[in-house]
Amino acid sequence: MLATPSTLLAHCPSSMALLFTIVAALAIFWFTWTYRKCKGKPRPSPPGPRGLPIVGILPFLRPDLHSYFADLARSYGPVVKLQLGSKLAFLVTSPTAAREVLKDQDIVFANRDVPTTVKVFSGGRDIVWNPYGPEWRMLRKVCVIKLLGNATLDKTYELRRREVRQTPWCRVQAGHLGNIRAFGNAQYFGFLPGAGPLDLQGVVKRMKKPMGKLYAIIDNIIEERLKESGSSSASAMEFKDFVQFLLQLKDEEDCKPPLTMNLIKDLLLDMVVGGSDTSSNTIEFTMAEIINKPEVMIKAQQELDEVVGKNNLVEESHIQKLPYLLAIMKESLRLHPVLPLLVPHCPSEPCTVGGYHIPKGSRVFINAWAIHRDPSIWENPLEFNPSRFLNSPWDFGGSGFGYFPFGSGRRNCAGIAMAERTVLHSVATLLHSFNWKVPHGNKLDLSEKFGIVMKLKNPLIAVPTPRLSDTTLYE
Ligand code: HEM
Question: Pfam families recorded for this chain (predicted)?
Answer without folding.
Answer: p450
